Amino acid sequence: MSRDFPESIQEALPSAKRVADVRKKFEKSGVKYVLCCWIDMLGIPKTKPVPIEEWEGLCAGKGPQFAVHSVSMVPDAGPADPDQITVPDLDSAEVCPWDNRYGWVIADLYHGDTKPYRMCPRTVLRRQIKKAKDAGYKFFTGFEPEFIIMRPLENGQLWKAFDDDPLPGEGFRPKRQPYGYDVEFTLDQMPYVSEVIDILNSLGWGVKDVVAEGSYSQIELDFDYSDMLTTADRFIFLRILLKEMAKERGLIATFMPKPTTGDWRSASHINTSVQSTKGAGKNLLQGKDGTWSDLTFNMLGGLIKHGKAICGVSCPTVNSYKGLVDYVPGLEGGTSTWAPTHITYGINNRSAMYRLPQTRFAIENRAADLTMNVYMAFAMHIAASLEGITKKMPPPKPTNISLYDADKEALKKAGVLRTPATLQEAIHEIRADPMSKQVIGETLLDCWLTYKQDEWDRYYTTVSEWEREEYTRFF
Predict the structure, then answer these.
(1) Which domains does the chain have, with CATH numbers?
(2) What's this model's pTM, rounded to 2 decimal places?
(3) Helix pair 374-390, 228-247: axis angle to 10 deg
(4) How many Å separate Cα 140 from the centre of its chain?
């Protein structure tokens, strides 16, 4: 399959040589079934296991078909419409490290046997990649996944896996101290983490380090970046891998940004850079003498202009917005969250949505987490960046102070806006930004926002335990 955007299923089909090469790789590793995964609108992979004997038919577009409108609560088609056909992208093919009986490959969806399916988010990203290429650019990205490992107790309650304090009611629990970088807890989590690192390095991901993050049992991984489509596919594969590796130990990997009030937020910062299609290898964000290039600031202009919508797509759950705050009483190890709260940029400023790091030439979007549909989120980043570059948009001045204690009126006068406070506000901002529909497509965007509005409505109308404790006897 070409990494360009195929306009028809015929253009998308891989060559016979590639099909044969990947089958040989799978059979050598002992693969018996192939998980050919398409991605739904929430960013979740879906599949039907295909015996390896059916590999050639799968790659010819003759594998299992999907009535994908029956999967979502927001169908875009009816029972009389054609099923969708998967076409695997063989560049994403891997042997599942947790069980080599399974091969893994990510596919694009085609409507009937003709054009790309309008509800396929991977197609959304590929379309933006093609637009960037036509404009002379190729985007690269890496992400910094943070997640928490839990263990189920006998009563069904989930508890932090790497936590040696007594359970509630079973002994004295000292005041929580900072967990981040702690050597003892790093060693506690290494039996799980070291195996994950070994697997990722065997896949060629180039793991740089692993961090015991701020919350108890919270882990961050850091590995090499790649082109945007490859990185998006890795994002999907990694979430499955982390969960499967945890299950083998009787544990649960959660990507929920804040499982409890005292947790530090689990983020997944998006680091974006860009190269010219005519000069591969040169990072266009790096200017002369180790400074940031003018193109960097043009890019930031587009990213800031569309920041609210980008935040809404990159932080897509009710729980996401429990993390985009400045201070939390009872936070493990302190009160300051180090989370982004305003749509601005700063030099190494972690309280801003966009950060220009001191260690790499990439624009870091800190308002993102592992619950996002990564294809839609990356597509929004490309589109906003391209707009800033092609229009040579100037960004506001950098904000190099902590935004948590900054003068609110001064920020307002400077045009520095807050990130959305709730999922409801984020939904409104996504709808209000015309770029959202242009990038994601009217049908997919409407279905996704309908789902998200229902998610908000169900949360908003649910009476919580906090409310019962606060009000039952108070008045």
Answers:
(1) 9-116 (3.10.20.70), 133-433 (3.30.590.10)
(2) 0.96
(3) 150
(4) 14
